[in-house]
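task queued by scheduler; priority normal; single chain, no ligands, no partner chains; default sampling; output format set to structure tokens
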Amino acid sequence: MEFSAQKQLAIDLLLLGEKKTDIADKVGCKRPTLYSWMKDPDFKAQLEAQRKDIISQADHYIISKTKTYIDKLDDIAMNGKDQKLQAQACMYLLDRVLGKASTKVESKSTEEEKSPEKQDLENEFARFRKAKVVDIKEADVK
């Protein structure tokens, strides 16, 4: 959908994070008009599409520079003058490859350890026992 130059400028300024009052002044409309545009489904869709495009471009740029970033971190880790910074760079690189070490111990109750399938079957058996459709003994279930 084609937007007026005024609406497109408003979208551009919103994406830049400008204040609504400043946007209204720059595009030559009143604030209520800007808010009305922002509620319009077509305006919202265009704003969101452009936002996603910006994020996608940023992602592609960062991905294209990944080797450069890793090489720089490796250089800092191996040749940096500050030992603390060297250690942080080394830990970051190791964490990225091996996963972050954790001292947190997770414990699960016996109820949480049951698989969803087993829990579903036990619920079904309990329902049948209540309905007395089938005579199922507790020992038969386990």
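post-processing summary
- The chain has a mean pLDDT of 82.
- The radius of gyration is 29 Å.
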